[in-house]
Amino acid sequence: MQQEGTLCDFPGNDSWVILSPVEQSIKRKIESVGTPLKDWDINIYRGVLTGYNEAFIINTEKRNEILANCQSEEERAKTAELIRPILRGRDIKRYGYNWADLWLIATFPSRHYDIEAFPSVKKHLLSYGKERLEQTGKTYAVNGEKIKARKKTNNKWFETQDSISYWDDFNKPKIVYPNMTKYMPFVYDDMGYYTNQKCFVITGQNIAYLTAFFNSSLFKFCFRESFPELQGGTREMSKIFFDKIPVKQISNKEEELFKNAIDDIQNEYNKSKAIVIDSMIYDLYNLSEKERQIIGFVEIVCRWACSFLLSVPLCRMM
Q: Residue 11: which pLDDT band, with cuts at 50, 70 and 90?
């Protein structure tokens, strides 16, 4: 223990992590030029909590059925706008996603919808029973079966459980990532996908660059331990932990370069492109060749051990 011991300085009351001297040096260098994300012009929001996904999250076949039951073109157009494609936490990959052919009936309380304007949607929701969809927290007896309503809120029976006053942010360019994850994947989305409560979305300043930074080897090397580890190696990626991460700010011209790189790698992912983006991040932080070699290419790949694979001999098992 004496031979392998490392002195670490833990000033203040903030969270801390044990690192080797060289790791400490790199982390201090990154933090010294960064601005905490809480001071960036960005918003971080949780995805949609419906309170009863069976009714509000549907597949394409059910969506088509609901649209086919519309009685006019006007109703059909409004209904199609109401039903939005949705991603779940499990769908997110590094620089990509696997859409599961699912749609959200986005009756957010903040939009103040009149369900009578959507009779086909109303019919679909009522097929699950109004008692089940009520937001009263009550228990009902229906045909000899106990039915538990959604938890008590001030929202109406056909509305989602969350108010979602930030609904328009889902339509903006954004970063999507899981709230609980072993692999720390992030994806840039400008296709207007909504997400469930198992995801967070980030909108605002330099979104393409932030997508690259969060997916980078540098981010995982320096900040993975900033997120609490839960059972099985899963990390909690909540907003309160992201707020403290310091990230170097960039120019609009640099953002364009990262946007081009993000578009390319998300069109067709491969490791070589990810390494190029890593190099762009390293250049931005003026890392030496030795520092780059120490970090290597970090990819969290092992499900049972959640280990790091590096492109250099150094291996960090977490």
A: low
The yes-or-no verdict on residue 10 having pLDDT over 90 is no
Render 177-221 in DSSP notation, one character per residue: EESEESS---EEE-S--EEBTTEEEEEETTHHHHHHHHHSHHHHH
Phi/psi of residue 260, nearest 5 degrees: -60, -40
Cβ neighbours of residue 220 closer than 8 Å, sequence gap 6 or more = 184, 298, 300, 308
Q: In angstroms, rounded to a whole number, what is the distance separating the alpha carbons of residues 84 and 296?
A: 40
Q: pTM to 2 decimals?
A: 0.88
What tens digit of pLDDT does each residue of 149-205 get?
999 999 999 999 999 999 999 999 999 999 999 999 999 999 999 999 999 999 999
Beta bridge partners of residue 189, listed in sequence order? 174
Q: How confident is the model over 107-163, as pLDDT tens digits?
A: 999 999 999 999 999 999 999 999 999 999 999 998 889 999 999 999 999 999 999
Distance between CA atoms of 315 and 296, rounded to whole angstroms?
9
What's the start-to-end Cα distance of the chain, in Å? 19
DSSP string computed for 257-296? HHHHHHHHHHHS--HHHHHHHHHHHHHHTT--HHHHHHH-
The DSSP element (H or E) to which 126 belongs, if any, is helix 119-126
**In this structure, is the dihedral angle defined by the CA atoms of residues 41, 46, 47 and 50, taken in order, positive or negative?**
negative
Instruction: Identify the CA nearest to 262 among candidates 95, 94, 92.
Output: 95
**How many C-beta atoms lie closer than 10 Å to residue 236's C-beta?**
13
